[in-house]
Write a structure and sequence with these properties.
By secondary structure, this protein is α+β, with helices and mostly antiparallel strands. It contains four helices and nine strands. Strands 6-4-1-5-9 form a five-stranded antiparallel β-sheet. The protein is globular and about 40 Å long. It starts with 7 loop residues before the first strand and ends in a 10-residue tail after the last strand.
Length: 153
């Protein structure tokens, strides 16, 4: 992760080893099959702090992603120096990657008109995400080996 970024957008690649039925706040209960999930978000004040919060095990359930992260493991983080409106652009680009699926409408997108900011992939999409550019800016993946083993399988 680029530690100089104070605001920007990000995507988390999350591995879920097996299927879980998860209650996602007021959205309801959903079946999440094992595989890979990519979540797109933004932080306009403290990007590093937001990502660190997502990686923490103990936290109050606040955002939709918190419920999935309770069971999954973040395996990669991509960050971009971009304004909040680029969050939806990145989400649409990820949704256009071959085999991307929306399993939960409205996930992470309650403040915009996107169908979702969470996408499911059977295979790890990180190499394809690494090639995406937002406003001409690309982001190299930042694996989080210090957070391996995090989350319930």
């Amino acid at each position: 992760m680029n530690h100089a970024l104070t605001k920007g957008i990000y995507c988390l690649t999350i591995k879920l080893v097996k299927k879980h039925n998860i209650r996602v706040g007021c959205l309801g209960n959903f079946g999440f099959p094992g595989g890979f999930y990519v979540y797109v978000g933004s932080a306009q004040n403290n990007l590093e702090g937001r990502i660190e919060r997502h990686l923490r095990r103990d936290k109050k359930m606040h955002w939709h992603i918190d419920y999935l992260l309770h069971y999954g493991q973040v395996i990669c983080v991509h960050t971009y120096a971009a304004e909040k409106n680029a969050e939806c652009i990145l989400s649409q680009k990820i949704g256009n990657i071959k085999n991307a699926e929306i399993l939960v409408s409205g996930f992470g997108s309650s403040d915009c008109s996107c169908a979702s900011h969470l996408y499911f992939f059977q295979d790890n999409p990180d190499s394809r995400i690494s090639r995406l550019k937002i406003n001409g800016i690309s982001s190299p993946p930042s694996p989080n080996p210090s957070h391996q083993g995090r989350g319930k399988n």
